[in-house]
Amino acid sequence: MTARAGDHDVLVLGGAGVDTIVHVPELPLPYADSYMIDSGIRTRAGQTGDFVSVGLAALGLRTHHLDLLGDDPEGDLVRALHRERGIGLTALPQPAGTKRAVNLVGPDGRRLSLYDTSRSHPGDRFPQELLRDLARAGRHVHVTITQPCAEALPVLAGTGVPLSTDLHDWDGENPYHEPFALAADVVFLSAAALDDPERTMRRIAGRGRAEVVVATAGAEGAHLLADGELTRIPAVPPPAPVVDSNGAGDAFAAAFLYGRLTGEPPARCARFGAVAGAYACTVPATRTEAVGRDELLAGAARSAV
């Protein structure tokens, strides 16, 4: 495949897969020989790259997704999701199979994810020419931290296309995340595992190329570091009852990038992210759904009052 300039706005790299959703009576789940799951156990397409892609597309950004997929039922679910949402997909063959996870979801919407790391090989790589073509065909690249995206970072840096990444629940120390943190122009992460979010955020900005660093903090909002200034972004009340936190960080990133690519200042981009993240918490884990542009803008207007 050879991409043409202007084919898409954003290339999303990695993070395609399926989740099996199990609603449990509480988290942590006490040991028992068995549990009866009356709500059912369901498998649907949607991991971090899929969620970001769906979020971007729902906001009107032309989106292309590149990853490795297996020739298996799980891969078929991922392909169908992209087809249904009008999202371009380049799926390279993955003999080990499509990435998958099991998500245990508690009554309060909290999630425990069990990732199957056997669905990749150490030698997996994205073809460099294909990667360059797809990156240069767009305005922005969002890089997930799934394997083998780390090996793609030097190639992407050479294209000159702006990069973003999401470090998820990085503790600020794990060396696996550092190449992503230092290579991206926009860095998202969760504050959940950080004792001092500001210290980690300033370290990312000081050592890498990040112009903006955002640490999300759930119901406490988010921390925004832009132009050397740390700002607290308040949380936005969800538009419906909270049922699941899965995908909230991906929704935040997608809406932030929508704001950035439409010329909004960082604080307004972060407000967009807060609105989208709150919306995502109202979507059951068994669905892959994102806030639309009209609802995002209306929510951002309400939160500014």
UniProtKB/TrEMBL annotation:
Annotated ranges, domain Carbohydrate kinase PfkB: 188-288
Keywords of the record: Kinase, Transferase
Entry's Gene Ontology molecular function annotations: kinase activity
Pfam families found in the cross-reference section: PfkB (PF00294)
SUPFAM superfamilies, A to Z: Ribokinase-like (SSF53613)
UniProt xrefs under PROSITE patterns: PFKB_KINASES_2
Keyword Plastid annotated: no
PANTHER family: RIBOKINASE, SUGAR KINASE
Listed name of the protein: Sugar kinase
Species assigned in the record: Streptomyces collinus (strain DSM 40733 / Tue 365)
